[in-house]
Amino acid sequence: MVRLIDDQPDAFAYRSFGRRVLFTGLLVAAVYGAAGTIVMQESEAIMRQTGMDSEGIEGQVTGAVVFVIIVFTPLAGSMLLLVHFLRHAFGRLEVEQGLPLAMLTASRLVFIAAIIVALAPLGLAIDAPITAINFYQERFMTWFFTLIGIGLALVLLAPVRQLQLRTRKTLWTPALAGAFAAGYLVWMAHSPAWDISVFQLSQENLAAVKEFRTSFTATMLTCAGAILLCCWTVKRNAGSILARQKAHFFTQVGR
Predict the structure, then answer these.
(1) For the chain, which terminal residue's Cβ has fewer other Cβ atoms within 10 angstroms, N or C?
(2) What DSSP string describes 32-51?
(3) Calpha distance 215→66 (Å, rounded)
(4) Range(s) of the domain holding residue 60
(5) pLDDT tens sequence across 15-37
(6) Measured over all CA atoms, what is the biggest interatomic distance in the chain, rounded to whole angstroms?
(7) Rounded distance, CA 135 to CA 118, Å?
(8) Collapsing DSSP states into helix, strand and coil, what is residue 198?
(9) What is the CA radius of gyration of the chain?
(10) Torsion angle, CA of 112/231/167/13, rounded to 10 degrees?
């Protein structure tokens, strides 16, 4: 009996790994859902409180900074914490982890770059305000969400690849769900609906703001659903390792 149990000594570790991946997916989906909800329901309140809907440049700058800090930056900052959480889950596994761990390391660098893209121009605004404003107007949305999409792909596909190494199976469902979530985000970052400056999120551009709010919220919720599907499938496949071990064990005992 001991020999049969030792045939797959990492089965319990992979079950725990799958649960951690699912928990990570729930947190990521919650962050994306919160970002979409804030933009849809609270953007008008933010514009009023910061004076973003006024004609003065100070109110628009303040409102843009608020949007960057409370909506966009947490998308990258929270992912950094979740990457750290995932690395601990990988540390308990016995299968070669070279590529999956490299993917997590790369994703950490990408999210750090996204945070720099979001916050560095704020410091630059002291010495070169025109340069900072031009960056937020012309390139911020595309650069930031392209980096977020790339980092998201690395985070979601790393556990999928790790599980493929263990099970020797091609896990199409979680791989496609993770690729869809990341690819959709990158695609929207380059779409006309998101070709908008953070300084244009005001009542003066109400039509463009409504289109962006609707598109942004729909994208965030769609990505959240795809992330949950990816992580839930990983968790189910990781748990199946232990289920197969138990089935094999009791079959041998019956014989």
Answers:
(1) C
(2) HHHHHHIIIIIHHHHHHHHT
(3) 20
(4) 2-254
(5) 888 898 999 899 999 999 988 88
(6) 82
(7) 10
(8) helix
(9) 22
(10) 80
